[in-house]
Amino acid sequence: MRRILQSLMFVLLFFAFTTETHAQKKTSNDTKFNKLEAFSPLFMEDQANSFHSATGEPGPEYWQNRADYQIRATLDTVKNKITGSVTITYTNKSPYDLPFVWLQMDQNTFRKDSRGSALYPPTDRNGVRTFTQGYVLKDVKVNNANADYMITDTRMQIRLKNPVKAKIGQAVIHIDYSFEIPTHGKDRMGRVATKNGTIYTLAQWYPRMAVLDEVEGWNNLPYIGTGEFYLEYGNFDYVITAPSNMVVVGSGLLQNPAEVLTTKEQSRLAEARKSDKTVMILTKDEMLAGNNHLPGKNGMLTWHFKIENSRDVAWAASAAFIWDAARMNLPGGKTLLAQSVYPEENSGQDGYGRSTEYIKGAIEFYSRQLYPFPYPVATNVGAHEGGMEYPGIVFCNFKSKRGGLWGVVDHEFGHTWFPMIVGSNERKYGWMDEGFNTFINGLSTKNFNNGEYYQKTDYQREGSFLFDQDNPPVFTVPEVIHDQGSLGLDAYTKPGAALDVLRNVVLGKDRFDYAFRQYIQRWAFKHPQPWDFFNTMSSASGEDLGWFFKGWFINNWTLDIAVTNLEYTNNNPQDGADITIENEGQIPSPVTLQINFDDHTSTTVNLPVEIWMVGPEYVYHSDAAKKIASVVIDPEHLVPDANPMNNTFVKLEAAPAGVTAITVIDKYLDAIGGRSKVAAINDFQMSGSTSIQGTKLGMMEEFKKPDKYKQVISFGGNPALTTVFNGSTGYMVQRGNKRNLSDKEIENFKNHVNNIIPELNFSSPGYQTKLLGVGLEDGQNVYVVEVTNPDGETSRNYYDVNTGLKVKEATDNGVISTFSDYRDVNGIKIPFQTSIPLFRNNSSELKIESAAINSNLPDSDFN
Question: What letters, b where the CB count within 10 A reaches 16 and e where it falls short, cover 320-343?
Fold first, then answer.
């Protein structure tokens, strides 16, 4: 599924020239570290059996059923309808005679009475925007006899006269069917109009066998939306009949090129199979001319495809397609074809002109790093979907550009390995494909074109999001997670981050990569359960990782390691020092300590996870006969931490006599214009920009006291998010969908409007301020002031000793912002350059391009 643009929502409350401390929710940590629970000797050990072994391998009695398909379908572009037939040869390898079988009828989710329609509103990504009748069945037969069947929502049960015999039995199921093609097929299939014709993307387009396994029995969770798919493997032989002016692409290899392609197209495809550079198969001019196609019979052509050992097939058709292709080079000298089809609207080199290059980059890397790509062709279709994956073919939004296009192509083809090769159950364990894929996407992006779109993630600053106690654990059924924001965290970001930590901090690259490849090889084209992954990683790496998987996946525990004290032995640096670190969360973790000395040298100490077996506190003794300037936990920021502020221990210099937290704050207010002038700010407007993976992110904000606010965020020049708050009401428009703000969101925005300069409130009742001392920031002497607001949230604020200006702020939830380039705007100094934290990014420099204060913004701006 598509990679969610999580950064936009994160920016929502932090795009201001100072970061308000109350905007971040403090992560709760009700339960302190418990070594007995963290290192409990029993971790899912009761799951090991003769089907799924304790080593993580398929057991000696593991079995798996099989479904082979023959499908014929016709695309009716007048009625926007598919009429088809499917013949399924179902092989029962289980030890059970089967008196009935189950099929998935996913098109039924678009019926008005479906469970999915009841759960999701039309504006949701998984909502139904145009209702259909779902599957209309004309004939259902089993072994050439009329079938006794029953349909419940998106499931069909066929009750058999003669059971399918255990281990060797087969049933041949034949179904004639039709369905209307929805416009927005839950962002996974459908149709979209472009200026040169409609693009049809067909998936979930035929009745499919449900999976029978030894863990769940029949896997019959309905298709609702968030939970994706779980499918049997088999061979597919299918034909698509479509208007002859269309290009049709699909999973697998085209079997009849001479019957559907011109001689020129065939010749160009042959050239592309030998070329590392992209070769045009059908140019824009040829597509516009519309005469570069075989005439067909009665204006229709039939395209024949085959794919082996696959769990699914999908296809696309359009008269608007431009088509290009190139060779992919796999290990062992094997070559395959990468190709892209896309409309004219985004065909330049900043868009789909590089799509095939991106396919090559992703698949060639994953084939070397993980397991060879198993299909003969890899096709990217520029369509309306945000991003959706199928064997050998993916659907990506045709408007994506530059880093956004690379990201979605890389992500969707990354799904070839999870779950196309490693066939996990997406309906129940979305993190086993989305999270694993998010992890490998980071490796691929760093590798592609010398890191063209790579940005290193500052994991330390993500702890407050990854360990948000309001979110369910990773080990939660996707439909129960339900909303897209929480799904993005629990299915994508958090498990992806966990694997990064496991690779870079816990095991090291060599041991992790070896164990990870073992998992893929063991479960290629099979159905693993979560404990198969857990047990493989432990057994192949040589580490008991129960503590890791328990904290990161099974429970929603927090990770918060703090350095709390430094004492010199005999009060003499020459005798060494005792450094105290504490686990203030629940997850144990190896700890990297960087000890910085006054002579500008440093040393790094790597402490194993076993230090926490003694309890929540550990004392490390340093033998260095030097004065210590600071101690830093996780200096490379590789580990998410719920409170990064306690990761550094610095013995600050004492402030001069007479300097207090309040005098420092007053000096800041004087420096930016004076308390009275700052308090008189009635309205404020500014616009600026930053970038994400090379794509411009534009931001505009307007405030008007006491209760008016507007924000517009654009991505790549296109509006992405608009938020308006006016009094007690407000709304948000994202991707064309409008929704009203909740009461909680309105309260947050109201606070935001009335706290443009938080320092105005720091001396108010309920606030606690403390001057910690004098330190250094980028060579500047700064006063460090700790502030706790009435909600108990703490921040550290750094003010230049000489100018009084604020240069940095860090909150206890890991939000760190820096401020520079102060300029005068109507008598108030504001920073025109601010480093702002963008989710999944280190930080981005926001450059203010225009600003105005007290410009009498009209109320109509906030309608």
Answer: bbbbbbbbbebeeeeebbbbbbbb
Report yes or no: 378 and 324 within 8 Å, Cβ to Cβ. no
CA–CA dist 684, 702 (Å, integer): 6
Report d(CA 415, CA 441) in Å as an integer. 10
Closest CA to 22 of 783, 856, 753: 753
Of 135, 155, 159, the residue nearest 146 (C-alpha): 159
Q: Measured between alpha carbons, how far is 860 from 863 in angstroms, rounded to an integer?
A: 5
What are the start-end ranges of the E strands in 693-767? Answer: 695-704, 708-715, 718-726, 729-734, 737-740
Q: What is the pLDDT of residue 313?
A: 98
Q: Which of 114, 119, 120 is nearest to 133 (CA)?
A: 114
CA angle 184, 348, 445 (to 5 degrees): 75
Residue 694 pLDDT:
64
- Cross-strand partners of 92: 169
List beta partners, residue 164: 98
Helix (H) or strand (E) holding 116: helix 115-119
pLDDT (tens digit per residue) in 214-250 = 999 999 999 998 999 999 999 999 999 999 999 999 9
Report the C-alpha gap between 68 and 88 in whole angstroms.
6
The radius of gyration of the chain's CA atoms, rounded to the nearest angstrom, is 30
Max CA-CA distance within the chain? 96
Q: What is the pLDDT of residue 735?
A: 67
- Which neighbouring-strand residues pair with 339? 325, 379
Residue with tokens 């969707």: 412
835 and 844 Cβ atoms separated by less than 8 Å: yes
Strands 247-250 and 315-318: antiparallel
Do 785 and 772 touch, CB atoms closer than 8 A?
yes
Query: Do 128 and 114 form a contact (C-beta atoms < 8 A)?
Result: yes
**Low-confidence spans in the chain with pLDDT less than 70:** 1-31, 44-45, 692-694, 735, 836-843
Return the structure tokens found at 32.
């302190």
Q: What is the pTM of this model?
A: 0.87
Helix axes 402-414, 434-447, angle to 10 degrees: 130
DSSP-assigned letters across all residues of 150-176: EEETTEEEEEEEEEEPTTTEEEEEEEE
Q: How far apart are the first and last CA of the chain?
A: 35
Residue entry with tokens 């290193």: 456
CB-CB contact of 639 with 583 (8 Å):
no
- CB-based contacts of 348, cutoff 8 Å, min separation 6: none
- Whole-number Cα distances in Å, 344 to 5, 352, 399: 25, 9, 10
Contact 584, 646 (CB under 8 A): yes
H or E stretch including 834? strand 828-836
Reported as type and span, the H/E element at residue 547 is helix 546-549
Q: Whole-angstrom Cα distance, residue 464 to residue 28? A: 10
What dihedral do alpha carbons 399, 405, 407, 410 form, nearest 10°? Answer: 120
- The tokens describing 217, both together, are 């029995």
Reduced 3-state DSSP string for 726-741: ECCEEEEEECCEEEEC
CA distance 353 to 448: 17
- Pure H helices in 370-528: 402-414, 434-447, 463-466, 478-481, 484-487, 494-501, 509-523
Tally of CA atoms within 13 A in the half-sphere of 320 that contains its CB: 22
Tokens of 570: 């005999």
Q: Alpha-carbon distance 337 to 360, whole Å?
A: 9
Cis peptide before 419 (omega within 30 of 0): yes
Q: At what angle do helices 494-501 and 434-447 cross, to 10 degrees?
A: 60
Tokens at residue 5, please?
Answer: 């643009």
In one letter, which amino acid is 559? L
Strand order in the sheet with 577-583: 561-568, 577-583, 617-622
The alpha-helical segments, DSSP class H, found in 326-379 are 355-369
